[in-house]
Each structure stands twice: as structure tokens, then as C-alpha cells.
Amino acid sequence: MEVNEESYISPKPSGETDRNRDTAPANAIRSGNSGAGSTSSAADSTQDFLAYQSTPEKSSRDLGLDIQALVWAPDPRGRMAMINGNIIRTGEIVNENAVTFIGEDFIIVRNGGDEWKVKFYVR
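The chain above was modelled as a monomer; its predicted structure follows.
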């Protein structure tokens, strides 16, 4: 049986039911099409972009971060990044850097008093 992005459904974490499970393909999540009940808008994504537009950029290599994937959702609780082989959510620390924000194609990290934008590039 061939498994593709649209047909694959990962195992349910304990306590999760089919009713509260998001089975949308990854591209729907990335583009912000989260399905019924979504109260976020494209304006939220624009506000995120503008809020971090002036944050200085630093390369992931300089920070010792290998960003392998980003999952963006209108609801910040659904956002995560695969960094250095670990699934990271906002507020978690990786390689001494606190991930303070996950955008559609970047993350914001803080180390001490410094904050940087780190772009994600598809390889």
C-alpha cells in the first residue's frame, strides 16, 4: 500500500479522539486552511510578519540550529518546528536558544538579551 501526504494519518496520542483531530494535509495547515471553526484570518499572518520584520536575521548555522521542517497553523498552539532532530514548540529551548515565535517560514529565537530571526529554507 502506498502512503502519501493526503492519505497518511498518524497514530492518535492517548486521550485524543477523532472529533478533535486535525487530519488536513500539511499544505492546508501551512497555508492557513485549518477547516471549520477557524477564527483566525490572513490579517494574523500579516501582523506576525510585520511584528518581526525588523528583527535582525542570523543564519541557522551560526546558532547551531538545523531547521528541518516548520508546521504553521493560524492557532499558535498548532505551530511547531523540527530543529536538530527534535520537535520544538514556542517556549522550548534548543541549543541554548529559546524559540519565542514560529512563523510561516522563520522562527524567532532568544539567547540572553539577543533576539534573531532565523529563516527556514526548503532543501
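Residues 1-40 have pLDDT under 50 and may be disordered.
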